[in-house]
C-alpha cells in the first residue's frame, strides 16, 4: 500500500549536527515545528513554502521568532533592536496562525499604544534619525494592517486618540511615503468597517487635507487617497452626500484627478482604475434621488420649469391672467405642449410621475434648453413642422432617454468589487451626466430622421440609439467631444451594416434536416464542453480572499485532480504565474463528499453582514460547495467567465446539467461550426489540416493600385 501523499522522506539538517533521514507529515509536522519557532528552508529549491516539500528534499531547520518573542522584542529600549523586531513582525503577521497568537497576547493594543504615545517619545530623535523614525513607524503600521486584515478582531475597539494620530500622519504636508500609504489604508478600513469610526474619521480628515496627496506623482498614494474619499462618500448618510459632493466640486476634485491622474503620462494601474470607477458610480448615484422623485402636478415651482421650456422654445412670455379667455389660453398651451412632444398635452406634469426617471428627466431637459439653446430650439421647431406621424416627440424622447442612460450607467447601484470600467470623458465636465444627455438627445433626433421613423417606430429607434451609445462608450473616448465624434461615425446605416455582418457570422439554419442533424450531434458537443470545463478545473484558478478591505492582495488557489476525484486548495502569498502544483496545496476535498453547489445570495458568505452582501455583481460571482453536513467551501470568481466554468464543471462532476450562459453560447458556436464543416464535407470541399502560410512581406513597396 503506498504511503499517504502528505508523508514525505527528507533529510533534516540542524546547525552543528549531522543530517538525518526522516519521514514527516509535510502539513501537520511542519506546522508543529513552526509553532515551536523553527522555520523550513530548502537550499536547493527557491520556494520556501512548507507545502512544496518533496521526497528527497534537504531541509535545514533555522529558528524563527515566535509571537511571544516578538511581543517582548518590540518593547526593547534599544532603537535598533526595536526596529529589527518590528520588521520581523511586519513579515510574520501575514500568517494567520502567528497573527492569532500575537493578538491573543494583546499585541494589537501594544501596537496602538506605540503609535499613540511611543512615536512622541521619538519626536526629538526624528530630526537626527529621520530615516530610522520613518522605518520604525512604517513597520509598526504595516504589522498593524496585516494583523487587522485577518478579521480576527473588530475595528470598533480603537480609541479616538489612535484615530487622531493616524489622521495626523495624513494631514502632515511632509510625511514618509510608506507611513502615509499605511495610514491612508487604515483610515479606509476604519470607515468601511464601522459606521461609528466613519463619524470619528470624518471629523479628523477633510477633503482639503486629502487633495494635496492627489497632486503628487506617486500613483500608489493617489490610489489610496481616492480610496479614502470613496469610503467617506460611500458611508456618508444620504443627507450628507450632496453636501460632500458640493465640497468636492468646490475643491475641484474632478479637475485635479483629470490633470494629475487620468492625463498623467504614467499608465493607470488596475487598482486606480477600480477606484476611479467607484468614484464615477458614487457620483452618478447622487442622481438617484431626483431619478426616483415623482413630479407633483400641483407644485407651482415644478410647473414653472415646464413653462420655461415652452418659453425658450417658442420665444413667448407668460401671458397675464387677464389676456384672453381661459379656454383660449388652455388651447394655446395644449398646442405648444403637443409641439414639445409631451404625451399628456393638457397637463405635461403627469409625464414626469413615472419613476425612474422622475424629475431627473425634467432637469436634463431644462439643462439642454438653457445651455444648448440653439440645438434645443432647432429640434423642437424642426419636429413641430413635420407631419404628426413623423415628428420625433422631444418630451417623450427625453424621458425615455434619461431612463435608458440611467440603466446604462447603473445609477443607484452599488459599485462592483472587481470592475475597472471608468470612462475618462465623465471626468472632463462638472455636469457630465447632463452633457451626456445633451449629446444623446441630439443623436436620437438624428437617428429618428435617418430611420424615417413614425410614432409606431419609437421603441425601434430607442433600441438603435442604445446600440449606438453602447458601441461608442466601448471605445472609451477621452472627452465628450470625442464621444460625439464616435457617434457621428455610427449612423443608422453603419449600425445596419454591423448587424448584417454579425448576422452572417452567426447564421442559423432552420430547415428540418438541419435541425434534425443539430439535435443528433448536440450530445456529442455537450460532452466536448463538459470535458473542456473539467480540464479547466484541473488547470485551477486563483481566487481572492474574501474581505471588506479590497487591496490586501491575499489569494488562494483551487484545482481538480487529474482523476477528477479530489479538489486541492490552499492559500498563496501572491498571485501565481501559471499553474500551482497539486502537492503545494495543503487542503483536500473529495468530490464524493460534495453534496451540492450553491450560487448567489444563498451562499453562506453572502448572507454575512457587510458591503459584499449588498453588491449585486459580487452576488453574481459567488458560489459555494456544500460538503458533509454543514461545511462550505466559499468562492468569489474573478469574473463571469470563471464563475460559469466552475459552476458548470462542479455540476458536471455531480452529474447535473450545465446551465450557465457560457454553456449555451459555447453550444451554439460549436454546433454552428460543426454544422458548417459537415455541410462543406457533403459538398466534397477539402478542408486543409494546416492553415495556409502567411504571405511574405513584399520587398518593394513602390507600387500603385489601379482603381480602374
TrEMBL record:
Which coarse location class describes where this protein primarily resides?
Answer: cytoplasm
* GO CC list: cytoplasm; guanyl-nucleotide exchange factor complex; plasma membrane
Q: Which UniProt keywords apply?
A: Apoptosis, Cytoplasm, Membrane, Phagocytosis, Phosphoprotein, SH3-binding
Q: Name one GO biological process term.
A: cell motility
* UniProt cross-references to Gene3D superfamilies, sorted A to Z: 6.10.250.810, Leucine-rich Repeat Variant, Pleckstrin-homology domain (PH domain)/Phosphotyrosine-binding domain (PTB), SH3 Domains
User: Which residues belong to any copy of the ELMO domain?
Assistant: 301-473
Report the InterPro entries cross-referenced here.
ARM-like (IPR011989), ARM-type_fold (IPR016024), ELMO_ARM (IPR024574), ELMO_dom (IPR006816), ELMO_domain-containing (IPR050868), PH-like_dom_sf (IPR011993), PH_domain (IPR001849)
Q: Give one GO molecular function term.
A: SH3 domain binding
Q: Which SUPFAM superfamilies match?
A: ARM repeat, PH domain-like
Mind telling me which PROSITE patterns this protein's record contains? ELMO
Subcellular location per UniProt equals: Cytoplasm; Membrane
Which interval of the chain is the signal sequence?
Answer: none
Describe its function.
Involved in cytoskeletal rearrangements required for phagocytosis of apoptotic cells and cell motility. Acts in association with DOCK1 and CRK. Was initially proposed to be required in complex with DOCK1 to activate Rac Rho small GTPases. May enhance the guanine nucleotide exchange factor (GEF) activity of DOCK1.
Name this protein carries in UniProt: Engulfment and cell motility 1
What species was this sequence derived from?
Oryzias sinensis (Chinese medaka)
Q: Which gene encodes it?
A: ELMO1
